[in-house]
Design goal:
Elements (H helix, E strand, L loop, with lengths): L2 H32 L7 E8 L3 H14 L4 E4 L4 H4 L2 H9 L3 E4 L27 H19 L5 E3 L6 E2 L2 E2 L1 H4 L5 E3 L19 E2 L5 H14 L2 E6 L1 E2 L6 E2 L1 H13 L4 E3 L2 H12 L1
Parallel strand pairs: 1-2, 1-9, 1-12, 2-3, 4-7, 8-9, 10-11
Antiparallel strand pairs: 5-6
The structure holds zinc ion (ZN).
The site of zinc ion has 5 residues, from loops.
């Protein structure tokens, strides 16, 4: 073998070696990115239920000041909606999600602690079709408010049955996803979009809420907070201080945490599953 031929051979094998190295390297980058959330370590969604005045008067101004957007689950017949329609429109214009929480908030009234459920809106006397229709009507109402056709749903009281049958499949074509009330934080691949877990906030301190976020970071998971009252207006409540401490922590750690309305996160999961 002459010298120049040997040089060509060794250059050629070096090229193959470098190509293989590059392929392995870029594949690892792709795998690493796939487990991430918009190139951040975890995702957090702030969700607020039952159309309270404090959401408009206290929560949204704080979200605005920190550059955050959230999901508000609205119920058609609650006074907090019909008395403040323009404020909810304005909230949607800022990029907040108006989520569907039905027209009449039906729940299973026979369950313990459910004496407050109006017997007319007891899910045990509903049919699946009636529930799906009620939810469809709420989507029409929300569409009039925000002009959108894509949003998420929150199961009232976390109940998923009407009569004795699950209504989950009957509403799937109307939503990008649905929030349940099981406390779980899952990675992108583990999430069932029609059973997205959430943590009910009731009396925790700011530090306790921040601990949950740290857990989500370590698990590279999605963490959904479920708020009702913030500084009052509901018996399930968190103090203004604890809520504010959590939001400031999220703001200070934005490099690691993707904070977004649940609809955007559900769409992102859907896209990355394809
Ligand atoms: Zn509710």
């Amino acid at each position: 073998m002459n010298k120049s031929f040997r040089i060509i051979i060794s250059m050629f094998s070096l090229k193959i070696f470098l190509t293989v190295l590059l392929l392995i390297f870029s594949r690892n980058i792709l795998i690493a990115q796939d487990s991430l959330w918009q190139n951040k370590t975890c995702a957090v969604s702030l969700t607020y239920d039952d159309v309270l005045n404090v959401h408009l008067d206290k929560v949204i101004p704080l979200l605005d000041s920190l550059g955050f957007r959230a999901t508000f689950y609205l119920t058609g017949y609650f006074p907090g909606l019909r008395e403040r329609l323009n404020d909810w429109k304005a909230a949607a214009e800022k990029g907040n999600e108006l989520g569907n929480h039905t027209l009449f908030h039906p729940c299973e009234g026979k369950a313990p602690g459910r004496e407050w459920v109006n017997p007319e809106y007891d899910l045990t006397i509903y049919s699946v079709e009636r529930m799906a229709d009620e939810i469809k009507m709420m989507n029409i109402l929300l569409n009039i408010l925000d002009g959108k056709t894509k949003r998420t749903f929150a199961y009232p009281c976390g109940d998923k049955s009407a009569g004795n049958s699950s209504y989950v499949d009957a509403i799937k074509d109307q939503f990008t996803g649905a929030r349940s009330i099981q406390a779980k934080m899952q990675s992108k691949n583990e999430i069932d979009l029609f059973d997205i877990g959430s943590y009910i906030v009731n009396g925790q301190s700011g530090d306790e809420l921040i601990e949950l976020v740290k857990e989500a970071i370590s698990k590279k998971a999605l963490l959904v907070f479920l708020f009702h009252g913030v500084g009052g207006e509901h018996n399930i409540n968190v103090s203004l201080e604890a809520h504010s401490k959590l939001l400031h922590f999220l703001n200070e750690n934005e490099k690691e945490i993707w904070v977004a309305p649940l609809n955007e996160i559900a769409e992102y999961i859907l896209k990355s599953k394809k």
